[in-house]
Design brief:
The complex is a heterodimer of chains A (377) and B (317). Chain A is of the alpha/beta class and 377 residues long. Chain A is built from 14 helices and 15 strands. In chain A, helix 1 packs parallel to helix 2, helix 1 runs parallel beside helix 6 and helix 12 crosses helix 13. The longest helix of chain A is centred in the middle third of the chain and has 18 residues. Chain B has twelve helices and ten strands. In chain B, the strands form two sheets. An eight-stranded mixed β-sheet of chain B has the order 2-1-3-4-8-7-9-10, with helices on both faces. Classes of the chains: A alpha/beta (377), B alpha/beta (317).
Chain lengths: 377, 317
């Protein structure tokens, strides 16, 4: 694989990735620690014929992105936890109406204003169900500088494939980390883009929401040639509101199944020294960097530890987790919250004896803390 | 009805008991602390205060210290108005029921920056004014999102270079002029709205005291020169503020009951707008030959606005 080497920060790489992946629109609002995504993309987009608008609030930010996405463009918004809370209603709208967009969330301490300039992984559960109702979120979590780029690119491809919002989680540490990253070339990124499905038959035969029970809607660019209805209400094959019992049931079941039945397309994780591991650490985002370092120390002392790092956080790689937790007794989940993903690991493993190392004071977990905890297991 | 505090002169005012302590983390030269201190010192009443997220909130209550001598609520970016409205409504209800612990009537004041006022908190302020809460909303208008690193807001004036409207070879910075918040708030038929600046302290105190004596919602737009984002020497805060009021870029006036407009400060010597712009780094690029048209536009707009204000004052509309 051809690569290019850049020196940058996680937030900047995420903005670069969006533009390289063909994103032409950004709508957002300054929110620490994500603001650099907006700063960088407002410089990059006009050069490629795109638009970046600083909106008057977070809700306006996501709504312009929905509008731009409906016109057929790839569109991005970026924020942090408090902004996600404000965007929640319209993330739900985008799930219901099947609007593909990407939302980068650079996590900081919460709830509320929390610790605006400090790291956290407190938005894990929020990213699973930001809005009310039933749907299945897709959330990716970058664990390195390079992944801030590659996962943002993947998010755009998945958004178009599944026709729904895709959340990219960075945490403050990764977002503001400055260093070298090996990135795929622009040619490679471009080659990986699969355009949204579209309909090109006669207009009277176009039913955007009439699709297989496990398939996403086929939404043509809204203002080009085909006319259809777009709503957050339960809707029929034309997109028109309906309360017809079976249509309503099928719609919500399809929103779930279009993701649930294709989890293999989404699954993504990293295994680090897992071949002979007797202790499994599960960590994601910036914590995984500390976990890798701790594993090197543990191995030097003869303790066979390994790391399992989910990259697609939602849906979780549950099958793979079960496979490991069935054979490894000692499992430690390390995260910067009070066990938000730990509960998912317990569910996937069907075990209640999974250990946890949690930190919620705005500071990163150090390799030393992980080493000490592993020795206590 | 509470008694209006009598203030004879600046010496007495500046040496009277500080209700807003100077020991805070605001930048040296920040006008926020001057304004808030002037507002709080203008009254002896008990105050119930709220601040939206922003420079004022971040810098004035860093554990274990606080600059506030009264109850103070910090709420999200958009909601100091509504939090204070809730407190005021509850107070009113308790008073009606006769269940208040104290018989002293406090004043309710909400603070927000221009980001929180002109942008994200806009609809909530509008709601508070429409419902007619007995409160004062103070916008500390430094024309930029200073707390989050210098992004433009809808109070950012034309030609200003910010991180999201950077000036360079392709742009002279912000393209739009700022929202006219005072007219918008006056259009709510608010009993009292006024524009103030810390350098004209007597004018400011008079307006604040009028505001406190007014029943119903009061909007105060306070110009707050920002040494960090406007880019001037911290020693020059008052000098830059003087240039703003004397060039009529920031005219001082009030509007009573939505129509009665009074200009409260008429500079003896009006200075050219370029003198005000030239004192700040954020407008530095406007003095390049290719941006001369923006300077002309600035002067033209300022003249037109002043002319309109005078006509509105005369016409009482």
């Amino acid at each position: 694989m051809a690569t290019r080497e850049v020196i940058s920060t996680g937030n900047e790489l995420s903005a670069m990735a969006a533009v390289d992946a063909g994103c032409k629109f950004f709508g957002g609002y300054p929110l620490t620690p994500s603001s650099e995504v907006m700063h960088v993309i407002s410089d990059l987009l006009p050069k490629v014929g795109g638009v970046a608008i600083q909106m008057e609030d977070e809700i306006a930010g996501i709504c312009t992105v929905i509008g731009a996405a409906m016109s057929g463009q790839r569109a991005l918004t970026a924020t942090s936890g408090p902004g996600m809370s404000l965007k929640a209603e319209n993330l739900g709208l985008a799930q219901m109406a099947e609007v593909p967009l990407v939302c980068v969330n650079v996590m900081r301490g919460g709830p509320s204003t929390g610790l605006p300039t400090r790291v956290s992984q407190g938005d894990i559960l929020q990213s699973k169900n930001p809005s009310h109702g039933d749907y299945k979120s897709i959330t990716l979590c970058a664990g390195s500088l390079a992944e801030c780029y590659t996962e943002t690119v993947r998010a755009f491809n998945l958004a178009d494939r599944f026709m729904q919002p895709v959340i990219v989680l960075l945490d403050e540490t990764i977002g503001h980390m400055h260093g070298k990253a090996d990135l795929p070339t622009q040619e490679e990124v471009t080659a990986g883009i699969v355009p949204r499905k579209s309909f090109d038959g006669p207009a009277e035969e176009y039913f955007p929401y009439e699709c297989g029970p496990t398939e996403p809607a086929v939404l043509n660019p809204m203002f080009e040639g085909y006319r259809y209805h777009y709503t957050g209400l339960h809707h029929d094959k034309n997109g028109f509101p309906t309360e017809e019992i079976e249509t309503c049931r099928k719609l919500i079941q399809r929103l779930e199944d279009k993701v649930a039945m294709h989890e293999d397309e989404l699954e993504s994780y990293e295994e680090f020294m897992m071949d002979d591991a007797e202790i499994m650490i599960i960590a994601y985002g910036s914590v995984s960097l500390a976990a890798k370092e701790s594993i090197r120390h543990l191995r030097a002392e003869g303790i066979k530890a390994g790391l399992f790092r989910p990259i697609t956080i939602w849906p979780s790689p549950a099958k793979k987790i079960k496979e490991y937790t069935d054979k490894i007794e000692k499992v430690l989940v390390a995260e910067l919250n009070i066990g938000q993903y730990h509960s998912e690991i317990q569910r996937a493993a069907a075990r209640l004896d999974i250990d946890g190392l949690f930190k919620v004071n705005g500071r990163a977990l150090s390799p030393h803390e992980i080493v000490s905890k592993v020795k206590e297991l | 009805m509470s008694e209006i505090k009598k203030i004879k002169n600046l010496k007495e005012f500046s040496t009277s008991a500080d209700r807003f302590e100077g020991a805070n983390l605001l930048c040296p030269g920040c006008a926020h602390s001057i304004i808030v201190r002037e507002i709080l010192n203008a009254t002896n009443d008990d105050l119930i205060l709220g601040s939206s997220t922003g420079c004022l909130e971040v810098c004035t209550a860093v554990y274990p210290y606080t600059s506030w001598d009264n109850s103070w609520i910090h709420i999200g970016f958009e909601n100091s108005s509504t939090a204070i409205a809730g407190a005021e409504a509850m107070h009113k209800a308790k008073k009606r029921k006769g269940t208040l612990i104290s018989d002293r009537d406090p004043k309710f004041v909400a603070f927000g920056g221009d980001g929180s006022t002109y942008d994200i908190g806009f609809q909530w302020i509008s709601g508070c004014f429409e419902r007619g809460h007995d409160m004062m909303y103070v916008c500390l208008d430094n024309e930029v999102y200073a707390n989050t690193g210098g992004q433009r807001s809808s109070a950012t004036p034309i030609g200003s270079s910010t991180v999201t409207t950077p000036a360079g070879s392709h742009s002279y910075g912000e393209k739009k002029d700022k929202k006219d918040m005072l007219s918008i708030m006056a259009a709510h038929n608010a009993p009292y709205v006024a524009q103030v600046a810390p350098n004209k302290w007597k004018d400011m105190i008079k307006k604040i005291q009028t505001g406190f004596a007014t029943e119903g919602p009061v909007y105060i737009n306070a110009m707050s020169a920002c040494t960090t984002e406007w880019k001037f020497d911290p020693a020059d805060t008052i000098a830059v503020s003087d240039l703003a009021t004397d060039s009529l870029v920031f005219p001082l006036y009030e509007i009573i009951n939505g129509t009665e407009l009074n200009i409260t400060y008429r500079p003896k010597n009006i200075v050219p707008v370029k003198d005000y712009l030239g004192a700040q780094g954020r407008f530095k690029h406007l003095f390049k030959p290719e941006n001369a048209h923006v300077l002309d536009e600035w002067q033209k707009r300022t003249d037109a606005k002043w002319d309109l204000l005078q006509r509105r004052e005369e016409a009482r509309v």
